[in-house]
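Blackboard transcription, Thursday session:
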Amino acid sequence: MRHVCRIACLAALIVAATTRPAAAQIDLSGEWAGTFYEDLPHRGGMQLGDYTGLPLNEAGWRKAESWDEAVVATHERQCIPHVVNYALRGPATIRFSKITDPDSGKLIAWQLLGSYGRPRTIWMDGRPHPSDLAPHTWVGFSTGTWDRNTLVVTTTHIKMGWLQRNGAPTSDLTTMEERFVRHGDYLMVATFVNDPIYVSEPFVRTTNFILSLTANANAWGNCAPQQTVDELPNAARGYVPHHLPDDTQHIQEFVTKNGVPADGARGGAATTYPEYMKTLEQLAKNASDPRNLPQQPLPRSDNPRRKEAPLPAPPGEIKVLPVQGNIYLLSGAGANIVMQMGDDGVLLVDSGAKAHAEKVLAAIRQLTDKPIRFIINTHFDLDHIGGNELLGKPGAPTVMVMANEDVLRAASAAKAPVASWPTDTYAGASKDMFANGEAIQLFHHTAHTRGDSLVFFRRSDVVVAGDIYDLTQYPVVDAAQGGTFAGILDALNHIIEITIPKDWQDGGTLVVPAQGRIADESDVVEYRDMLTIIRDRVAAMIMKGMTLEQVQAARPTYEYDGRYGMDTGPWTTKMFVETVYRELRK
Amino acid sequence: MSRRIAGLEARSAIALVMVLGAALSAQRGAPVAPPLTPKAAASIDITGNWVSVVTEDWRWRMLTPKKGDTSSIPVSPEGKKIADAWDPAKADADGCKAYGAAAIMRVPGRLKISWLNDTTLKIETDAGMQARFLYFDISALKLSSERTWQGLSMAEWEKIPQPGGLGVSLQQAPPKTGTLKVVTRNLRAGYLRKNGVPYSEDTVVTEYFDRFSAYGSEWLTVLTNVDDPKYLSQQYLTSTHFKREADASKWSPIPCQP
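(Written on the board underneath:)
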């Protein structure tokens, strides 16, 4: 047998010696020192108001101009590292390391470390990118291939971030393409950032590194929640530093000090092409041209707003994704359904729309044959309780359908089929449950409706938010069912209080919204911040005596409409603004 | 039985030696094909119309920076002295100083790149109306000692080493051509930026040209190392990107001479 093996080995040697791998793989491993011969003043600390060279659309520069640097002092932002689409601009060394298969020695991934970003893995083994429903992180998910001498990297699942550290935003719909090319001891990285919300053209920049035999990339240790400090000790709950649209003091300094017309300072794709130099010449000749002044006219351009919400799964196509612990997400049956399973059986949070209940049951049966024992309804809406009837069918064992008592009241008032009503309700501020070896807390909120529940799986560390948090649209305030905008903000602040990130403001407690992908605390913070800013703007307009029509015309939601706004459908941006306005007028 | 296996092993070993020998001798004794011309050997096509997209150093490229502003440039004390002495009132007399080979790729504008012949690439710029010639073969040139804004550029296709079998060079493939590398000397002293940040005539410019596709557009990048022992304290490394345009309809030549 040993002889046969030896012959086989010799044969393999012959084959190996006379064949070549198909693709060139340039060795990128080593420590690469950053060079700072471009945009140096931008990389040590940016001036507010300087968005020169960025292809921001109007939503982008408006969001940038409302950014207040004090926001980084809030507890939820102190540990945020550089987002992946900015990280290589940080002033530090990077390290490329090979991750190889222990058996074959074949390269399966690159690890890229350093420059104030978190360690990235660039998978080279052909694995697919995660589901649209998967959480986003600061480093995103990267895969790579070789094209001649170039490492081509595609990154998705990036958190909402920035192009520059002075508020120039990127949304969580951003994707990134990178090209790494080595020329001897130089490494050049061309980065293409595509964000359908805040840039009108992909943003391109190139960053250079020099091979170093002495540098040592820094992983920056750990930044866990216990390492944050009270930098804003007197801040009220839910305080979000920001600038109102007519507050331009903070951006004035850059414009006046550097002689850059406001029009150029705001960036925009047109300003990045050579022909814009003629515009600059004209502006220089005419100091009174309004484009020289950092004033804030009403929004004047169309926003790339969606016509309808981009649901991750077409209705009726049930997508299943593990969340963490014992928790799974079932998407596509109306509102998101969350499933917990274990020895006791299946527990569902919401049951989706009635029309898709059979498919939901089939999806559950793909995962377990245990009986459904519990359904928790986060509130009364047909896309949340519609499946109760089928999934909670009387049988053995009996299914407990738990909700706040107002859900029962609402179901009765709406004359919903009795079989879809909760079997058990609670009336206090919270309700404790225990199933499948896990403590579960229900917290009552008057938010989307009068009878909302946040559901917190304490062992799996997952919060199910119901319609309080919706990653596909502005939150629906169902005033007819007693919902309030203030209640939604309060509930979001509550979610932020009970969620704890693992480290670097990433992961830890995960949050399942009513619609859309899995989120974590930093995603909820962004959403809460947006609603707080919109509230403050509308309140300021009311203080000025503006009518509803004037407020609508001023578009206080403008920067967020591309991501969350809708012109048609059951919950338009106009309806949302009107709800906020009317509530604040009271 | 064991003798038969031993024989098999021996035959396999001989086969290995023969195959390797044949492979090596094939490399040594194969008929030599005539070398490809640089134009034919190009593995990337950088010809066409390109526009600079100024997303970096915008304030220092789209506007003339203020006197003494040398941000991001590693100027030496001597270079700083000269930059500080620049007189904006006399900027019109600077002519083409800011359009030399050490700076021209950073000047916002358009490029037209074409093959002049099988061994020479030509880069024209509309900003300053400059023409650069990248020579793959300088043997045919009548070289003079005259210094020019664009200097003398020697080009070569950078070689991409190819892996061999077993990680050794038993069957090393000939290197493929990759990036375009250009080294430029014989420059007239000029400006790295329009506000008089100087480079001297001792400057050597080394460039690497790459081409990529991303998000439906074609891109040309130029990694530029400016090495000036006089006015720079260390190498000045930048990379500049250009987007491909379908035609020359936006070509807008403006001479740099007043």
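Lecturer's comment: Residues 380 and 409 of chain A are 9 Å apart (CA to CA).
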